[in-house]
Amino acid sequence: MEAKAITRYLRISPRKLRLVIDTVRSKPVSTALSILEHLNKKGARMVTKTLKSAQANAKVKKMDEARLYVQQIKADGGPVMKRYMSRSMGRADVILKRMAHLTIVLGERERPVSAVKAEPEAGKEKGSKIFGRKKTKQAAGVGA
Residue 92 maps to which CATH number? Predict the structure, then answer.
């Protein structure tokens, strides 16, 4: 099951918005919101509002909030406003004011986020290797 939120006609270029959304892609919702809160970008506020909207949509669908993560997030180009700026010798330059469409899809993981972090990595033995190599007498500090 997934929950979706789309915000259209955002007055920011998609390129600038993609810098923000790359930081929260495939992260748990709670982690993504805390990252966006401390990010000093205009797009972070826009992504936060859309992410909270998707979270509310998930709540309506009775999805487990502890297992929510950002399954898909994308910033597509919207319409472009063209403005003209006068230049010397009677010329004019075109200024492109770009817009973006932001789409966020939230999904549910099999286990809650806290259970995934608390589980130790399988197959690792404590103290058997140092930096990927087996211990030697010299590395262990025995003999000289």
Answer: 3.90.470.10
Tokens 């205009």 correspond to what residue?
42
Q: Is residue 105 part of a domain?
A: yes
Tell me whether residue 136 is in a domain: no
Task: State if pTM tops 0.85.
Answer: no
Interval 87-108: pLDDT, tens: 999 999 999 999 999 999 999 9
Strands across the sheet containing 2-10? 2-10, 92-108, 68-86
pLDDT tens readout for residues 58-84: 999 999 999 999 999 999 999 999 999
User: What is the span of the domain harbouring residue 14?
Assistant: 2-115
Provide the number of structural domains found in the chain. 1
According to DSSP, residue 12 is labeled S
- CA 97: distance to chain centroid? 25
Give the chain's end-to-end CA distance (angstroms, integer): 62
Q: At what angle do helices 42-60 and 14-24 cross, to 10 degrees?
A: 60
